[in-house]
Amino acid sequence: MFSKIPVPGFTWKEEDMSHALSFFPVIGVIIGALIVVLNAIKPFSELHAAVRIILTLVIPMIISGGIHDDGFMDTEDALHSYESAEKKLEILKDPHTGAFAVISLIKWMLIRAAAISAVILCPLSDTKVFMILGLIFVVSRCLSGLTSVLFVKAKKEGMLYSFTKDNEKATVMILAAELAAALFFMMYLNLICGIILIMVFAGFTGYYRYKTYKEFGGVTGDTAGWFLMICEILSTFALAVMLCLLSVF
pTM of the prediction? Predict the structure, then answer.
C-alpha cells in the first residue's frame, strides 16, 4: 500500500516519509470531491445513472492507482491460506496473485457496485447525501493512517514501518484532527447517518485490530489497504441501507 512516489529532482528521506501519512486524507478529499461533482453538479449529474455508477466505482481506483486493491488482494490470499502468521507474512510479499485474491476482489467490488447503485438511484439522494458518500473516503484514510501508526506492526521492516516509526505523536494529532473534522461535518450534514456511520467505522476498526493481531501478529502496509477498501465498502453499504429504509418509511 505504501510506496515512495518518484518526484523529479527530489530524494525521499525517512523524515519526509514519517510526515506523509498526515496528508493521506487529502487523497480522500480529492476522491470525494470528484464523486460529489459527478453526482450532484450539472451537467455531470445529468449523465445516465449507469455511467455515474461506473465512474463512481472506478474513481477511487484511478486516483489511488489501485495500490489499495493490491494490498487487499495480497491480504486475502494470505488470510485464505490458513497457514501460520509467519507463512502469511511471506505470502504478503509474494508477487503472484492467487485465486482467492481474485474471487474476493470480485465479491467485494460487486458489493460496492450494489451499494453505490442504491445510493445513486435512491430518490432521497441529494447533494448532502453525496457529500456524506464523499466523506467516507476521507474518514477511511484517516482511520487507515491512525491504525497504521497506533497498532502493533507485524514486522520491523518495510515501507509501513518506515512511514510510522518517527514523529508518531505529530502524525497522530494531525490525523485525529482531520478525522474529527470529517466526522463532525458528516454529522452536520445528517446527524442520524453520521452517528450510524461512526458506529460502522468504530466496529470495523475494532475487528481489524483483532483480525490482524490474530492472523499476522500486527498490521502491515498490505493489511492497511485491505482495511481501507473494506471500510469504504461497508460504510457505503450502510449508507445505502439507511437511504432505503428512509425511502420506505
Answer: 0.88
